[in-house]
Amino acid sequence: MAKFYTKEHEWVEVAGAQATVGISEHAAHELGDITYVELPKIGKSVKQFETLAAIESVKAASDIYSPVSGKVAEVNQALDAAPELVNQGAESQGWICRVEGVNEAELGALMDAAAYAEYLKGL
Amino acid sequence: MCEWRLIDTGPLDGPANMALDEALLNCFQKDRSRPVLRLYGWNPATLSVGRYQDAAAALNLDLCRDEGVPVVRRMTGGGIIYHAAEVTYSLVCAPEHLGDRTGVKDGFRKLCGFLLGTYQRLGLDARFAVDCNPDEERLGERTSFCFAGKEEFDVVVNDRKIGGNAQRRLSGAILQHGSIPLENRVQQGLRYLKEPAPGAARSVSLAELGQKQECDGLKRLLVDSFQECMGVALAPEPLTEQETATAGKLEEYKYRCPKWTFEGRS
């Protein structure tokens, strides 16, 4: 499955009409030790690039924006007790939530892994 | 040279202070607004808790109520702070105002640079924690009391933490606020905690470093240091009508509401 990224450093992996969302390894590294993840409510409807969740590190509290529109179907409850999972694997076990009802056409507004790597070089 | 607005609101109470900081952030438009540096104080002395802290678990709320010490919840993360005898600042800008240092870590270094400059103007050996004794202890460990913890970009003088800073990032806008302690009131603040915070004894204030500073004098130093470190000009200005109105609403419907203060919900 291909992964896509936003300019605000979220990632999304789409399988059919369902997408898994998180923050990028780069963002997790930049934020430092993650101390809290405010997970979205299941059933919450989000539009692409609107606020989905929030994350706090020892350095800053940041909003997480949804890379795609849809409805939150599942959240990573493990982050409640272990927010450090985001530091350990922001793009694997540190996923934030799953969104359903995704329109794949929205992926056109995102960057693929190669374009994101280029984008990071320019920061 | 980029011009920033300088807004000195003087001392206000906790809800008014936090509402105003959030209003400055909410009213900031990335491509249209000039960035802002606000200077303020706290009257009465107030305990602030971080955005995601459990106030009832960390604070002895009965004692706070009995002694009339107000509690307010910030929109920024971090630990509890007892705000008394300090000069407080907040700033709102776009990532682009940080030049090429737009990341969180670099941003902190850039945005806290004027604090180092201020202390250095007083002849103090101020550095970032990460730049001195990096191996001495674990930086960034979570504590419920802000001044008990030490993070990479905390400002330290003689290896003791001075003041605290916290950031909130939205898409296209950054809020950072923090404190410069004139006198050490940490011991008073610690009385209201449920758990001891041993690291807090290592925090320090200007008075303890032999610097008896008046508020106004310190503000002038902050302004000079900010202009030099950020390479910008500060222009004193009042709040806009929109900022005042937004702050009024946030104060009434968020920061004065127990639901927000004690449960973190608004």
Task: Describe this entry's structure for a reader.
The complex is a heterodimer of chains A (123) and B (266). With 123 residues, chain A is an alpha+beta fold. Chain A has a single domain (3-110), classed as OB fold (Dihydrolipoamide Acetyltransferase, E2P). Chain A is built from 4 helices and 10 strands. In chain A, the strands form 2 sheets. In chain A, strands 5-8-9-3-2-1-10 form a 7-stranded antiparallel beta sheet. Chain B is of the alpha/beta class. Chain B has one domain (3-263): Bira Bifunctional Protein, Domain 2 (BirA Bifunctional Protein, domain 2, 2-Layer Sandwich), CATH 3.30.930.10. Chain B has helices at residues 14-27, 55-58, 61-66, 104-121, 186-190, 215-230, 241-255, 258-263, and strands spanning 3-12, 36-42, 46-49, 71-73, 81-83, 86-93, 126-128, 155-157, 160-161, 165-170, 173-181, 233-236. Chain B has a 6-stranded mixed beta sheet, with helices on both faces. In chain B, helix 1 packs across helix 7 (241-255) and helix 4 crosses helix 6 (215-230). The longest helix of chain B has 18 residues, at 104-121. The model of chain B has no long low-confidence stretch (mean pLDDT 91).
